[in-house]
Amino acid sequence: MALIDELAAFLDHLRLERNLSPRTVTAYAADLDAYRATLDKSGRTSLTAATEDDVRRFVSSLTHRGLGLRSIARALSAVRTLHRYAHDELGATDDPAREVAVPPAGRRLPHALSLDDVERLLAPPPKETRATLRDRAMLELLYATGLRVSELVSLTMNSVDETRGIVRCRGKGGKERVVPVGEIALDALRAYLKLSRPRFVRRATESALFLSPRGRAMTRQGFWKLLRRRARDAGIVATFSPHTLRHSFATHLLERGADLRSVQLLLGHQSIATTQIYTHVDRKRLKSVIDRLHPRS
């Protein structure tokens, strides 16, 4: 039986014996048509002649086409089902797809804002209100410390020591860490505490540092809204999230010569391997380091 006939018989098997829906059979047919092209290039005339290298070449071709991992996993699943059928029905002695796995996902580099975007985002608003004072204090503190948004909105009045210039927060696993805060962020925080927070307070016992208009602790969702508003007002068109300020904090520190271990402690990463993703510093700086420090540059 020719290869194309074997594939047609397999699709009939899916349709008639396994009673799969027409939509599912069509998806199988599309994936297996691409697989047949790979086998044709290798000169295979039957499924029984396919090898593990053929399957790996097929998966590699899907990767080079830019398909996502879910699409690749679906296509590989179709090939595995096909070769199990070939083993059971066509007398194949081996399953070449058995040991082939979907390639691991590459870890995406975090996106960091440019310094110009950060300056626009953190610039004082034209009109000072209780909301704009709070928003600027939150943004300044987030960029100054690299806190997670969940850590930021969980801060209490006792979390910040203005005299010593530090903030205490609880990160993942409830672990406390102490992070220094720069003067610009402290000034924004002082303005909020003096002029804004008292106007938000509804209960004298409220301990949350950053408050919503209802006098309750700000939520992550509330911070999302204010961030989108500030980004729109600043004319920032790049898509970013609250976590982007944390990425920017780490990236900008490393670009200016901070060591990885210090950034790890500031971010509260348990393993330095997690912090290493932030080492995508720009090539110009790397070249300048080589030119300045290498003995034979």
Summed up:
By secondary structure, the chain is mainly alpha-helical.
Give your account of this protein's structure.
The chain is mainly alpha-helical and 297 residues long. It has two domains: 3-89, DNA polymerase, domain 1, CATH 1.10.150; 115-291, hpI Integrase, Chain A. The chain has 13 helices and three strands. A three-stranded antiparallel β-sheet has the order 1-2-3, with no helix packed on it. The protein is elongated and about 85 Å long. The N and C termini lie far apart (66 Å). The relative contact order is 0.09.
Which descriptors apply to this entry?
DNA polymerase, domain 1, 2 domains, three-stranded antiparallel β-sheet, 57% helix, hpI Integrase, Chain A, 297 residues, 13 helices, mainly alpha
Architecture blueprint of SSEs:
Layout lengths: L2 H15 L4 H20 L10 H13 L4 H21 L25 H8 L7 H16 L3 H5 L6 E2 L4 E5 L5 E5 L2 H18 L19 H15 L7 H14 L4 H8 L4 H4 L7 H11 L4
Helix pairs in contact: 1-2, 2-3, 2-4, 3-4, 6-8, 6-10
Q: What structural class do you assign from the helix and strand content? A: mainly alpha
CATH architecture of the largest domain: Orthogonal Bundle
Strand content: under 5%
What level of helicity do the residues show? 55-70%
N-to-C series of helices and strands: HHHHHHHEEEHHHHHH
Cα(first) to Cα(last) distance is: 66 Å
What is the tally of helical segments?
A: 13
CATH superfamily of the largest domain: Intergrase catalytic core
Average pLDDT across residues?
87
> Which geometry do the CA atoms define?
elongated
CATH top-level class of the largest domain: Mainly Alpha
Strand order of the largest sheet: 1-2-3
* Count of domain modules: 2
Can you summarize the main beta sheet?
A: 3 strands, antiparallel
Residue runs with pLDDT of under 50 for 5 or more positions:
none
User: Compute the gyration radius: what is it?
Assistant: 28 Å
Q: Total strand count, please? A: 3
Q: What do we call the CATH topology of the largest domain?
A: hpI Integrase, Chain A
